[in-house]
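Write out this protein's structure.
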Amino acid sequence: MCEHIHRTEEERARGPGARQAAEPDRGETTAVAPLRRRTLLAGGAATLAALAGCGSSDSSAAPEAVGLTTEDRCEVCGMVIPNHPGPSAEIFYADERPSGHDNPARFDSTWEAFQYDFERRDRGWSREAFYVTDYSTVDYSVTEEGGDQVISTHPEAEAFADAETVTFVVGSDVKGAMGKDLIAFSTESDAESFADEYGGSLAGFGDVSRETIAQLGRA
């Protein structure tokens, strides 16, 4: 099995052998060639203004991220989150019960989390915290399965970062549980390296618009 194992900048500085890949064998894989960089799907100044309003996270009182287990299903698609590849996400809302249960709302893809959040903010919900998998801090791997390049999943609590502080790679050729996604890195140079190898464009939290999410949902 061939797979691409990626290390954080700190571990690259320490040299080879700093850590081993954490992902289990997924079966036979094939090597994949670097793909060209793509342009950002969508975004704009209007989105920045909208996200800066009352729906944004209150970081001063933000609850901490929690680990996701096989008891947790995605609020949008209903799939068991740790059983599928790709980034996970969770969102806490003030004085609300997402999908009828205690916080947080849980997701097996980043784009579904954004979709859910846009819809809940339209209803007047107030977001306390939005967490996404931070691929700068985990031993992630990219493998090829069924003709698709897929990225490993990391549902443990310590793998999450505040979505408002990361750099996303949008629409790369690497897929997660629900196809193409937004893959987050707390270190911008890690995001740049990923986009150079697998395609996609860089975006901040405020650059992600409803149209961005709609396009990913159709990909």
